[in-house]
Amino acid sequence: MSVARLRDSAQYVKGVGPRRYEYLKRLGLQRVWDILWYAPRHYFDRTSVEEIGRLIPGREATIRGRVQKVTLERSPRGWQIVKARLEDETGTIPVIWFNQAYLKNVLRPGQVLLLTGKVVYGRSNLELRVNEFEIVEQGHVLNAARIVPVYRATEGLSQKVLRSVVHQVLHDYAGCYPEVLAREVRERYKLEDIQVAWINLHFPEDFTRLEKARRRLAFEELLLWQWAVQKKRAAQRATLPAGRSHSGGDELVRMVRNSLPFELTAAQEQVVGEIFADLISDQPMSRLLQGDVGAGKTVVAVLAAAKVVGNGFQTAFMAPTEILAVQHYQALCRFMGGTPVRVGLLTGKTPPREKAEILAMVERGEIGILVGTHSLIQEQVRFARLGLVVIDEQQRFGVRQRGMLLDKGDWCPDMLVMSATPIPRTLALAYYGDLDISVIDQLPPGRRPVKTFLLKPGLEGRLHGFIRRQVEDGRQVYVVCPLVEESEKQDLQAATTLQKELATRVFPDLRIGLLHGRMKSEEKKAVAASFRKGEVDILVTTSILEVGIDVPNATVMVVQHAERFGLSQLHQLRGRVGRGDVQSYCILVGEPHTDEGWKRLKAMEKTGNGFEIAWQDLQMRGPGDFWGVRQHGLPALKVADLARDAHLLEAVRAELLTGVGYDEPKLCSIADLYTGEEKLIYKN
Ligand code: ADP
Ligand code: MG
Fold this sequence. Notes:
The strands form four sheets. A seven-stranded parallel beta sheet has the order 10-11-9-12-13-8-14, with helices on both faces. The protein has a six-stranded parallel beta sheet with strand order 15-20-19-16-18-17, sandwiched between helices. With 684 residues, it is an alpha/beta fold. It is built from 24 helices and 20 strands. It folds into four domains: 1-47 and 146-239 and 642-684, no CATH class; 63-134, CATH 2.40.50.140; 250-440, Rossmann fold (3-Layer(aba) Sandwich); 451-626, Rossmann fold, CATH 3.40.50.300. Adenosine-5'-diphosphate (ADP) is lined by residues 262-265, 268, 291, 293-299, 420, 444.
């Protein structure tokens, strides 16, 4: 019984010949290991065997009976029908198979069959149309009279064959799968023995056992995955040169702090502490700073910059767009106003003379903080002593880009990535294997949360009255039309129609603008600019997120057919208002057809916390559909479900931290099978 046997090719499994092996490969099942981990998509509950005499038409039923006779007939439409009469103590019934003439020679009177199918009225009496059957004398019962696994199958490989292959693998190979978890850990998290889990994942005796098996294997899978992530991370870190310890600089930090017109929130203090600990350490920092829009990330980054500059190093501060770079520059100038630190700005618009001057000052170390777009790293900026790189809204900034920065000094600068995308913490932890994470989960005091209301369609009269009052108070309004992915044309039509209707019938006296995804980028800019200048009262739009308008005077966000948007999308839309200091409103017009749909919209009404919303979204839709996660490249997990098993992921990470709950050599022995590196070797 050795672990190595799990690498065996599937073609060596009993009952698998060259043809079946080809089909198995098509399903990605090259190795015994893959088959073991081939979790059923779902299960049929065929535990209760019904009596033939008491069958009810119109339902699926499982029966057990003895074959009396077998005939082959031809239906009026030319189908071949194999018909067998089946008998138990309570009665008999004809059971039929379509177009499987060979069964005529397989089925014999006297055999006992277990079968599942639909009970229907035939020409004169009840009959059963067989979905699946099994001859009881032939070995194990896998297809009926039990909880039956249903796998993703392929043409040429039926459920029945898959079940028998999996069953064979369980019998011959599962014993080779090592138990990696220590007993204490299994007891602590109520995880059952791995061998029991394998059997119950595929052929559970009941649903309680199935759930226990699923939980155990989810833990196993998360452990294998996170172990691989950590190994990769350690390897990556090993390639970085040493960082610098920034242990001084407190005087400058104090000056900046004292000039702040507000107190930091507890959440801000917490993350400042985390970041400073990294800066003081001589390990290069790789940290992601997450916080909803307006949570106050910039101040935190400024304090980090102050600490680094206070140690005689420089900071590069990078924003995704020129507009944002300018905003950051202004903020930094304000925060650094009472200090001797010089702040510089470099964008594509900087005139050549000025640019040359700034570059020279950076190279001489006279500019302490240089603000620019992400292209800062590509341009020939030579820092005298680069100590910290702050990157706003660019999660994909990774090892490669950091490599570019390395040319600029012979040590590794610290790196702080800021993001307002509220990815739930569990996901973030799992995905950003190469970043540490700090979260600001609290907004500064005194913010007025956007008031959110649900409105059923048909009550537009009230909505229009409300909009009119806001406009009369000098405010502006967004109306977002639904995005129907399949049909951009239809979207356009809906938006155009609505704009016309508002402009002619509802608000003939107001200025109604239109902005949609099909416009040229120049046109979009023009519309956005006139809205910003207050020349438009109500902006009807399909693509507001894409355009990224930010107008503090807009106080109302109306979302049509809100049920068609994801929660995180709605949250982003809502984030477009509430930017000034007057009360803002988000009105979700919609009529979900399901309870879950209502629950989703209610969640929007209840909370303004982006992380909470993202979490609910994840719970409701699963990580596969979760906003943006696909682009984040999460692995396809076989058993674990990141939404459902979040607590298991936390547990796994805790165990990996302490490192005593599992058998390291054993884990090592299966880790490469999991990551698939073994598979590549195997192919050659
Ligand atoms: P983020 O970058 O996270 O979206 P900012 O850093 O731009 O948020 O902060 C948004 C606004 O809140 C800024 O005007 C900032 O000065 C202010 N602010 C930040 N922290 C606090 C605080 N603790 N108390 C009050 N206002 C704050
Ligand atoms: Mg910001």
